[in-house]
Amino acid sequence: MSAFLDSMIERAKLDKKTIVLPEGDDPRVLEAAEKILADDVANLIILGDPDEIAATGRKLDKAQIINPSDYEGREELANTLFELRKRKGMTLQEAHEKLDDVMYFGVMLVKAGLADGMVGGANHPTAKLLRPSLQIIKTNKNAPLVSTFFVLCVPNCDMGANGTFMFADCGLVVNPNAEELAHIAATTSVSFRNLVGVEPKVAMLSHSTYGTAKNDDSSKVIEATEIAKTLSKRLIIDGEMQADAALVPEVGEMKAPGSPVAGQANVLIFPNLDSGNIAYKMVQRFGKAEAYGPITQGIAAPINDLSRGCFAHDVYGVIAITAVQAQMGDE
After folding, report:
1. Pairing verdict, β 267-269 and 117-120
2. 157 and 117 within one domain
3. Using CB atoms within 10 A of its CB, is residue 311 exposed (0-12), middle (13-18) or buried (19+)?
4. I need a labelling partner for 105 at 20 to 30 A (CA). Which of 118, 207, 211, 313 fits?
């Protein structure tokens, strides 16, 4: 277990939050839930059939198990959903039908204040989780867009923050323009500072360093870097730069002399979803890294996704992170 995850667990315990797990039919989720409860990290609501969940033999007595089909508050949730979406054409009947989808049901528990956050996606694609989140919870009033990041904890690594990095965006924004990329960088730097507790040093990654290649792709990253510098005076950011220049001090000094980030980066911003998603999976598998996410940023309440290839340990970590995000929402 990484030092980062240890810190998330300890912080979560200080002010326990309630996290809803909509996929009570997934054995990885139930394994993680059992350990979360045993470690007293968070209160849990698990959606699913109580008899089927009990038959797994997991020790989940401290969790609230809700079967969406016969939940006593279902009518009230449906009415609330109808009121939220009727201007978009949703009927009351359609609201009732939406609650058959555990992702909509879980998000409505957060909206109703019955849970502080949600973790799903172990057996659902990202779009199935984010669609109800954006329709119902909506974006944070201070966020120009919703994006995601992964926390990567690489063992025996002296780069980044003692081997801890954030990669963005690896799960949502497919091909951000320069302005969107700048906001992803600025938002991820805040997430890094809040969660990791270390000053973020943000590298805007490209196949080019300081103009060694001139094309539309590298130009977008250069423009995004300049925009990002205007968003926060506190932001330590540089680019465009190649990954080795961002991470390796000797290479950074050679390719980007005098850079405040080169060779020291702990936040890596990728030019598009392809590069970010590929990179995090390779670091996770080849580097034996712990990978937590995709963690959303910009939604008004913490609704976090899981990779469908996740392990129970990953689910546990995302629950702890989500609980800490919920605490920060109270500040």
Report:
1. unpaired
2. no
3. middle
4. 313
The alpha carbon dihedral of 60, 61, 63, 68 has a sign of positive
Can you tell me the distance from the alpha carbon of 244 to that of 199, in angstroms, rounded to the nearest whole number?
20
Q: Torsion over CA of 46, 48, 54 and 55, rounded to 10 degrees?
A: -140
What dihedral do alpha carbons 241, 246, 249, 250 form, nearest 10°? -40
Q: Are residue 130 and residue 157 in the same domain, yes or no?
A: no
* Contact by Cβ (8 Å): 73, 47: no
Cis peptide before 15 (omega within 30 of 0): no
User: What six digits make up the tokens of 294?
Assistant: 């995709």
Q: Which domain holds residue 275?
A: 147-286
Q: What are phi and psi of 101, to 5 degrees?
A: -85, 120
The 10s digit of each residue's pLDDT in 259-296 is 999 999 999 999 999 999 999 999 999 999 998 888 99
Report residue 1's pLDDT band, with 50, 70 and 90 as the boundaries: low
Quick one: 151 and 275 in the same domain?
yes
Q: Across 140-223, where does the E strand assignment appear?
A: 147-153, 164-168, 202-205
In tens, the pLDDT along 157-206 reads 999 999 999 999 998 899 999 999 999 999 999 999 999 999 999 999 99
Quote the pTM value.
Answer: 0.89
pLDDT in tens, 33-59: 999 999 999 999 999 999 999 999 999
Q: In what order do the strands lie in the sheet with 64-66?
A: 64-66, 43-47, 18-21, 117-120, 303-305
Per the document, the length of the chain is 331
Calpha distance 123→49 (Å, rounded): 16
DSSP state, residue 329: H
61-85 confidence digits (pLDDT tens): 999 999 999 999 999 999 999 998 9
CA distance 256 to 239: 9
